[in-house]
Amino acid sequence: MSVTSGKTKPSLTQEILSHLGLANKTAAWGTLGTLRTFLSFSVDKDVQRLLRAIAGQGVDHSAIVGVLTNRSREQRQLISRAFQERTQQDLRKSLQAALSGSLERIVMALLQPAAQFDAQELRTALKSSGSPEDVAVEIFATRSPAQLQECLMVYKHNFQVEAEEDIKSETSGILQELLLALAKGGRESYSGIIDYNLVEQDVQALKQAEGPSTEGTWVLIFTQRNPEHLVRVFDQYQRCTGHELEKTVHHIFHGDAQKALLSLVSVIRNTPLYFADKLHQALQNLKPNYQVLMRILISRSETDLLSIRAEFKKKFGKSLYSSLQEAVKGDCRSALLALCRAEDL
């Protein structure tokens, strides 16, 4: 049985905005990101600010952070091109020579196109001695199909190898199957139709896939179905079994495959909460995990960082901003706080 969801009539505000030139510029009219398109943007003024910050007596860190954390990624790319045209110098190389440590890494990441940033993070994770599933699932499961496709194209161009080949060489078993399936980007899109028959079929398939050699069923369902469908599958599974699906994942799977599947369930259930948990974990170590903090705050700053902040405060009883203030030290502190933007009271 299928039921088509009714379409909501646009509000009066939406109708008015649809006739305005800025209607499609979500950053101008409100977004779930903390970093918005700077409406008084002047590429020439920004180039001059950065030149003064680099060439003056002592590097002006606050000026550099002030420019780059208050411009959208698109605007930062315009600044980079204009800097090259006006000075015959590469902005990234100039700033790299002027900065060091964590602040240097953040500034370099801010100046990269999104696909290049994701490709580099993915490559580093796959080639590191640690477990690659954390970063790989984050990128494969939270980027749009177009973003993922561009990331994989950049990966091949920059490293002269397909990401899938690196996954095959660096992982094995169910984890490999899961990452390869996610990398294909073959997840169904939500059509607005709730297929209750398919929900029940998937629940029964997962209940029966609890023995040896049945892991492929989990990979297929988790990587092919759309998130709206999967949330209903998770809820129905709990009603039928009396426990959350995560308990079964803990029972059947082990090691990196278990971690990857649990991360994927978390993304599907509530993506902002998934990122809030990752940020909280990154702040718990004696020395914060700056790479995780940087990757999430930069990649989500124009997407849903306000939602992530709200989930962080709700779950941990303390704002993300205050947590960063307390845990982060050094030059990169101001940049991370600027991306987070503000306190949540």
Automatic annotation (TrEMBL):
GO terms for molecular function: acetylcholine receptor activity; calcium ion binding; calcium-dependent phospholipid binding; phosphatidylserine binding. Gene3D superfamilies: Annexin. GO terms for cellular component: cell surface; cytosol; lateral plasma membrane; nucleus; synapse; vesicle membrane. Keywords: Annexin, Calcium, Calcium/phospholipid-binding, Receptor, Repeat. Pfam families: Annexin. Coiled coil: none annotated. GO terms for biological process: cell-cell adhesion. The keyword Repeat applies. The keyword Repeat applies. InterPro entries: Annexin, Annexin_repeat, Annexin_repeat_CS, Annexin_sf, ANX9. It comes from the Eukaryota. SMART domains: ANX (SM00335). PANTHER family: ANNEXIN, ANNEXIN A9. Homodimer. Belongs to the annexin family. A pair of annexin repeats may form one binding site for calcium and phospholipid. This is Annexin. It comes from Neovison vison.
